[in-house]
TrEMBL record:
<dbReference type="InterPro" id="IPR055103">
    <property type="entry name" value="PDXDC1-like_2nd"/>
</dbReference>
<feature type="domain" description="PDXDC1/PDXD2 second">
    <location>
        <begin position="389"/>
        <end position="451"/>
    </location>
</feature>
<feature type="region of interest" description="Disordered">
    <location>
        <begin position="660"/>
        <end position="683"/>
    </location>
</feature>
<dbReference type="InterPro" id="IPR050477">
    <property type="entry name" value="GrpII_AminoAcid_Decarb"/>
</dbReference>
<keyword id="KW-0175">Coiled coil</keyword>
<protein>
    <recommendedName>
        <fullName>Pyridoxal-dependent decarboxylase domain-containing protein 1</fullName>
    </recommendedName>
</protein>
<dbReference type="Pfam" id="PF22937">
    <property type="entry name" value="PDXDC1-like_cen2"/>
</dbReference>
<dbReference type="GO" id="GO:0019752">
    <property type="term" value="P:carboxylic acid metabolic process"/>
</dbReference>
<dbReference type="Pfam" id="PF00282">
    <property type="entry name" value="Pyridoxal_deC"/>
</dbReference>
<dbReference type="InterPro" id="IPR055102">
    <property type="entry name" value="PDXDC1-like_3rd"/>
</dbReference>
<feature type="region of interest" description="Disordered">
    <location>
        <begin position="699"/>
        <end position="719"/>
    </location>
</feature>
<feature type="compositionally biased region" description="Basic and acidic residues">
    <location>
        <begin position="1"/>
        <end position="22"/>
    </location>
</feature>
<dbReference type="GO" id="GO:0016831">
    <property type="term" value="F:carboxy-lyase activity"/>
</dbReference>
<keyword id="KW-0663">Pyridoxal phosphate</keyword>
<feature type="region of interest" description="Disordered">
    <location>
        <begin position="1"/>
        <end position="24"/>
    </location>
</feature>
<dbReference type="InterPro" id="IPR002129">
    <property type="entry name" value="PyrdxlP-dep_de-COase"/>
</dbReference>
<dbReference type="Pfam" id="PF22930">
    <property type="entry name" value="PDXDC1-like_cen"/>
</dbReference>
């Protein structure tokens, strides 16, 4: 395992050979087989083959406790070859020890354990056990018994998505057997199941001839980490003879000395599902469902126990890891994660514009917070994009914190910090939480300024006739704008070209603002979106600069369009004049000179000077002239043309930033100076380009001398 993690098995020569080989592609099985070193080499190549190109390792560091868990899978395969009686004794000992340790750790007395790879599989088995308990002849009659009395499974609306559908699919039940219980709307947490409404739903189902079968409750909802009122729910299940199953991240806190009473109530429920892998940083260990039931035959019928010793070896990785960590090590990891949550929560209380959604502030392992506008900020219809931006930036800047973005039904988009699920694997420490708070403190003023200037930007854009405001709630910055064109025939082409050139020019400016073409799935096209703003932003100057640059780009485009039309008319006129000159030459020289053999003899005895002259087109005057005045100085014009290359000089002081108000900083500039510099720069560029095209056009037309005997090709040559 150390060799595979370090990537030191392969030599430098081997790396070069691998780059030129086909071993990374599927191929036929070799007939003579391979040795162990070659097979491990192949595994290593598949694990770390492209690390050099990506610049980072794709595996996280696995500690010694992780090595013990991985070793358990190898030992399970090795132990399975023992003789049957010895294997039975060993697997029974492993299963008994692990079940006893887990029941004592999590305060679940007289419980049995079911180990499973999919963390939903334990709940499926509990449903099968409940069905076998309520329908006595289910083992022989099957689903025909369910038609007379339909079973109903109840789950909270705050449960993880797709859980109920998965149960119905695995059990072969229709979706009508699933009942979603809403959360509280008047009293209590907005993420807790409404107990009164649940009572009413159960009574209605019983009156309609249905059988309330099982209730799924949460000890730590997937989104916000809130716990249902388990004591009240347990009383309700006893009243209606229902099975109560609990799952959630807050169950990990049962190992602590001080536990919330709402979470402690889970130890009295019929079954709970634990996920010690992420809680303790153990890779590839199974989830565990602890349950209580008196009839072993029904447990066997539900698939909770097996007579196959190999099935009991699923607990071996967990058996090894728990012994390696010990009681104190397990307690220390859970306690450390809870302390990280408390540390972050204490700092969040001191930050303005941050709202938290925490059920139990004294002992909550999950912290959910969001950015919220204060009274000084104008009302903004949606803060979701700001929270998404905040969560993404925090996850990128402080990756060891393990924060992510969640969507809650009532609060909307929030940032979640759940160290019980991430800290053990990432190695999150107190300094990572401090870095998270520091980064959060830096971003809050930026978000507040952006919200404050967002309406100002919209008002400034709406005042400009050449701009249209783009409303996109998924963009976290100032907003978007787009240049408009009144010519409907060429509107699409012009808008696309102008906005594309405008975005390039804005991105070249010396400013801290971020310019983009918008979100990935933005419905509006050919737009310019501006990112986050700071306190010293001058919105009026920003919009004025966008209008000025867009106007220059549009005028430059119209200049070239007009120039194209003038050149086209000039070429047509030149064709007509050259055709007329050819006809006059034919009349002067006579028909005999046009005959190949006779013409050569006549030209030898009596040479005739060609009278057809070239034409040059003057772009400034828009007229055709003879090439004789310019042909003699052709070399000098070429030299001048090579020296007159387009230049664009922008006058700007070192360190100067655009769009800064007076007094905001040492690098602030005036509103008029930056705009005038941009206008002067674009006008100089347009003037130089016009002069350059004028010279090139004169050169192209001046070269069209008509050699003798090739008069008919003059028009095609000119084109």
């Amino acid at each position: 395992m150390k060799i595979l993690e370090s990537g030191k098995l392969e030599s430098e020569q081997g790396k070069e050979r691998r780059k030129l080989s086909w071993k990374d592609f599927p191929g036929p099985l070799q007939g003579d087989g391979q040795d162990v070193v070659s097979i491990l080499q192949l595994v290593q190549n598949l694990m770390h083959g492209d690390d050099d190109q990506q610049g980072h390792r794709r595996m996280q560091y696995v500690g010694e406790q992780g090595h013990m868990a991985l070793l358990g899978h190898s030992l399970a395969a090795y132990i399975s070859v023992l003789e049957r009686e010895r294997l039975r004794k060993l697997t029974t000992r492993i299963l008994s020890d692990t079940t006893l340790w887990l029941c004592r750790l999590f305060r679940y007395e007289n419980g049995s354990a079911y180990y499973h790879e999919d963390d939903r599989e334990g709940l499926v088995k509990m449903c099968r056990l409940a069905i076998n308990t309520h329908y006595e002849d289910y083992a022989t009659e099957g689903f025909t018994l369910l038609s007379s009395k339909h079973p109903v499974i109840y789950q909270s609306a705050a449960c993880r998505p797709g859980l109920g559908q998965h149960l119905c699919s695995q059990l072969g039940l229709p979706l009508s057997s699933l009942c979603i219980v809403p959360c509280n709307t008047m009293f209590g947490s907005l993420h807790q199941m409404d107990v009164a409404l649940l009572d009413k739903l159960i009574r209605d189902d019983r009156e309609s001839g249905k059988l309330p079968l099982l209730l799924i409750a949460n000890a730590g909802t997937p989104g916000a980490g809130h716990t249902d009122k388990l004591s009240r729910l347990k009383e309700l299940c006893v009243q209606y003879n229902m099975w109560l199953h609990v799952e959630g991240v807050n169950l990990a806190t049962l190992v602590l000395g001080q536990v919330s009473s709402t979470v402690t109530a889970a130890t009295k429920c019929d079954s709970i599902t634990l996920t010690p892998g992420p809680w303790l940083g153990l890779p590839a260990v199974p989830a565990v469902t602890l349950y209580r039931h008196e009839d072993p035959a029904l447990s066997l019928a539900a698939g909770l126990t097996s007579s196959q010793p190999v099935e009991k070896l699923r607990a071996l990785p967990l058996w090894l890891s728990l012994q390696y960590l010990g009681h104190d090590g397990i307690l220390q990891r859970i306690k450390h994660a809870s302390q990280l949550s408390q540390q972050l929560l204490e700092h969040l209380k001191t930050l303005a514009s941050i709202k938290t959604s925490v059920e139990d502030e004294l002992n909550s392992p999950v912290v959910v917070f969001r950015f919220s506008q204060d009274n000084s900020v104008r009302k903004f219809p949606s803060l979701g994009c700001m929270c998404v931006y905040l969560g993404e930036q925090l996850a990128q800047q402080v990756p060891l914190s393990g924060v992510d973005v969640v969507e809650l039904e009532d609060e909307g988009t929030c940032v979640r910090f759940s160290p019980l699920m991430t800290a053990a694997a990432l190695g999150t420490q107190e300094n990572d939480v401090a870095a998270l708070v520091e980064k959060l403190g830096e971003m809050i003023p930026v978000l507040s300024c952006t919200l404050r200037f967002r309406q100002d930007f919209k008002d400034e854009v709406l005042q400009q006739a050449s701009l249209s405001y783009i409303e996109d709630q998924s963009w976290p910055g100032l907003g978007g704008a787009r240049t408009t064109d009144l010519d409907e025939d060429k509107r699409q082409y012009r808008v696309e070209r102008i906005n594309s050139d405008l975005l390039k020019k804005l991105m070249e400016l010396d400013t801290d603002l971020y310019f983009s073409d918008g979100p990935e799935f933005c419905e509006e096209k050919n737009c310019i979106f501006i990112g986050m703003a700071t306190e010293d932003l001058d919105v009026a100057e920003l919009v004025e600069t966008i209008v000025s640059i867009g106007r220059d780009i549009e005028e430059s485009g119209k200049l070239f369009e007009n120039m194209t039309e003038v050149v086209r008319r000039g070429i047509q006129e030149a064709e007509q004049q050259l055709q007329k000159a050819n006809e006059e030459k034919l009349m002067e020289e006579g028909v005999l000179r046009q005959i190949p053999l006779v013409g050569s003899v006549l030209n030898w005895f009596s040479p005739v000077q060609a009278s057809v002259k070239g034409r040059t087109f003057n772009l400034a005057e828009g007229c055709l002239d003879s090439t004789e005045p310019v042909y003699s100085v052709k070399a000098q014009m070429i030299k001048e043309a090579s020296l007159d290359s387009p230049k664009s000089v922008t006058k700007r002081f070192p360190g100067q930033k655009l769009f800064r108000r007076h007094g905001a900083g040492s690098d602030s500039v005036s509103d008029t100076s930056s705009v005038s510099q941009l206008e002067e720069s674009f006008r100089e560029t347009a003037h130089v380009q016009e002069h350059h095209v004028h010279i090139v056009a004169e050169m192209a037309l001046s070269d069209q001398r008509v050699p003798e005997g090739q008069e008919t090709e003059s028009v095609d040559t000119l084109r």
